Amino acid sequence: MAWAAWLARLAAGLGLVLLALRQASEAGAAGAGSPGLARAVRAAGGRPLGAFLVGLAGTLLLGSSSAWVILLEGLADAGVLELPAAVAMVLGANVGSTASAHLMAVALPWPAGLALWALGRLAFRRLRGPARRATAGAAAATGALLAGLDLLGQAARLALEGTGGADRWATLLETGAGGAGRGFLLGVAATAAAFSSAFTVGLLEELLGAGLLSFGQALPVLLGNDLGTVADTLIAAAAAGRRGRAVAAAQLLFNLAADLAWLLLGRQGLEAATAGLAGEPAARLAVAYTLLNLAAALPALLLHRPLARWAYRLAPGARPGG
User: Fold this and answer.
1) Buried-most residue among 22, 222, 259, 310 (CB within 10 A)?
2) Quick one: pLDDT band at residue 254, thresholds 50, 70, 90?
3) For the segment 50-98, what is each residue's pLDDT rounded down to a tens digit?
4) Interhelix angle 130-159/3-32, nearest 10 degrees
5) What radius of gyration do the chain's Cα atoms show?
6) Taking the model in full, what pTM does it have?
């Protein structure tokens, strides 16, 4: 493998994904300054399904569930959102977070993503008004994310060119309980270390597309990746008050319960359910990612108030703002 080329693409891809997270946070902060948006978010928070849809739409708009959940931590701490409403929005954000898998299944050259980022960034600096700045910031975040995803996909392809690399992956993720457990832990570690699910999902899609990994072997890694996505929101919660920490705790509780349930009880059902929904392996993986989150989030929405109470009790001790 050409290590220099692999490292350059990996570093650039991760850097652009992190840049997208920062741009999304700025867009969210700009949007929070809009009285109309604040009223809409507060009004939607009174209805669980409305809050869920706001969480879904906010994540799609910002291009990052992490940025949205971090914004929710701040809004909950500030008293703008009641904790149960914030938890319902987190459930929507989890479903919205799967959009990156669908984006990776549709190739877009990184220069086009960078062009969109540059235009969005320029508009963000020049425009006035919270709504306009939030829209421009979201465009910049989306552009950086798309460029980063393309470069991470290239890094994944280069990683597979190493002699014996694909064979080692196949051996590591061999079918059976042992392979499933290793795959789950590998997905958690890879996503938490990179603060992004993009590289993990991209590598899985490349392995599936090359026929080097079966769909059943990829699923445990995908489930571990889903749990690993909470790493950055947990780190951000360290600077929050108790209500903000409770938002992060609720996401951790939900992802942990849902992903372990799928791993231990539902992998075969998920594999069968996606068999007829998509033909290409990458598209099928993206469908599975959305389906596993959606199937878990909708029932959990009925329990969003108990989940908020449990999360608040588990959140570390109160601070002056919490």
Assistant:
1) 222
2) very high
3) 889 888 887 877 666 776 787 787 778 767 778 898 899 999 988 887 7
4) 160
5) 19
6) 0.70
3-state secondary structure the chain: CCHHHHHHHHHHHHHHHHHHHHHHHHHHHHHHCCHHHHHHHHHHCCCHHHHHHHHHHHHHHHCCHHHHHHHHHHHHHCCCCCHHHHHHHHHHHHHHCCHHHHHHHCCCCHHHHHHHHHHHHHHHHHCCCHHHHHHHHHHHHHHHHHHHHHHHHHHHHHHCCCCCHHHHHHHHCCCCHHHHHHHHHHHHHHHHHHCCCHHHHHHHHHHHHCCCCCHHHHHHHHHHHHHHCCHHHHHHHCCCCHHHHHHHHHHHHHHHHHHHHHHHHHHHHHHHHHHCCCCCHHHHHHHHHHHHHHHHHHHHHCCHHHHHHHHHHHCCCCCCCC
197: number of Cβ within 10 Å: 27
* pLDDT-wise least confident of 98-107, 118-127, 135-144: 98-107
- 31-35, 110-114, 152-156, 192-196, range with greatest mean pLDDT: 110-114
CA 315 to chain centre: 22
The predicted pLDDT at position 50 comes to 85
Mean pLDDT, to the nearest integer, of 17-42?
Answer: 68
Answer yes or no: are the C-beta atoms of 141 and 120 closer than 8 Å: yes
Residues with Cβ within 8 Å of 29's Cβ and at least 6 positions away in sequence, in order, are: 71
Q: Is the pLDDT of residue 103 over 70?
A: no
